Amino acid sequence: MNPLTNIKNQNALNDRELSLGYSGDLKKSWHSKYNDSAWIYVGGLNYDLTEGDMIAVFSQWGEVVNINMVRDRKTGKSKGFCFLCYQDQRSTILAVDNFNGITLAKRIIRVDHVEEYKVPKYKEDADEETKRLWEEGCAPKPLKRKVESMDRQLERVKKAEEYLLNLGDVDEELIRKIKSDKKRAKKEKKEEKKRAKKLKKYLRKAEEDPEGDWKEKAKLYDKAVKEEDLYETNTHFDFGKKKETVEPTHNLRPDFEKAEWRDIEIWKVIREREKAEKAARGEKSEAWGPEDHYVSKRYQ
After folding, report:
1. Residue 101: left if φ>0, alpha if ψ -120 to 50, beta else—which one?
2. Helices 172-208 and 214-224, interaxial angle, to 10°?
3. Which SUPFAM superfamilies does the record cross-reference, listed alphabetically (predicted)?
């Protein structure tokens, strides 16, 4: 039968179903005969269309998982028809009802169901891309998520619970110190931003009027140069602030060029005593380098 006649007969069948009120009822519709097949036939195609073009056009009715564009074995040119498979069988009904008889690339195409699709014979001389398409199809690969074992997940939950329980044992003084440090850092950042804004303003004024007022220039110098850069940090007026004193845990080796003679003599006596104790135990005493320290027994 002529393809155009088939198209007209199929469209007439759809119109009759609409008039009888069967549209949407898959049990009464003529589409129910093809419930077990997700393949459709597309004929009357333009010879320049490729598999990618067909997927792009027909994917608006559902996910296309496979396609077989029938081509000439010698030349590789399309023969004008193809078979297309959807992931959901209901997509075939939408494609047949909406695309049968439309004009695609200046040619009227025919779209119909395929009751029993025959898999093409495997050809050894086919290219790798065609073989991969026959075996795997053209659907995107599903995303695989690596799931940890149940024991591993339970272990992570226990660790999280222990961590949350231990939060109550944190020293309150440490928490106050962390909060004060954050507050001070935020304040310093705000002041630095304010100073940079004023500096930008004074620089713009200086560019506009190089021979300007000396007061404006003084303000510019005050904002451009920090006091610490000129005079270093002045700790003389730090009244009421706690000074952190670190107690040394060892006796440093004295600098023989700067140390007093008393420190040098004390260090020599300690060194000789340590050598004698090692010799009594039968141990050898190695020469000390300039970076070594003497650690007394009470800290050992």
Report:
1. left
2. 140
3. RNA-binding domain, RBD (SSF54928)
Say how far apart CA 156 and CA 138 lie, in whole Å.
40
Q: What type of residue is 13?
A: L
Q: Cα–Cα distance between 134 and 83 in angstroms, integer?
A: 12
pLDDT tens per residue across span 229-273: 655 566 666 666 666 666 665 555 555 555 666 777 777 788 888
Cα separation of 93 and 111, whole Å? 10
Query: Is pLDDT at 62 greater than 80 in this prediction?
Result: yes
The secondary structure of residue 248, as a DSSP letter, is: P
φ, ψ for residue 197 (rounded to 5)?
Answer: -65, -45
Phi, psi of 39 (to 5 degrees): -95, 145
The residues pairing with 84 across neighbouring beta strands, listed in sequence order, are 40, 67
Reference 293, options 259, 253, 247; nearest CA is 253
The reply to whether the predicted model has a pTM over 0.70 is: no
Taking only the tens place, the pLDDT of each residue in 6-21 is 888 888 888 888 888 7
CA distance 86 to 83: 10
CA distance 99 to 108: 10
Domains of the chain: 3-136 (3.30.70.330), 190-238 (no CATH), 261-299 (no CATH)
User: Residue 11 phi/psi, 5° resolution?
Assistant: -65, -35
- Other beta carbons within 10 angstroms of residue 9's beta carbon come to 10
DSSP code for 115: S
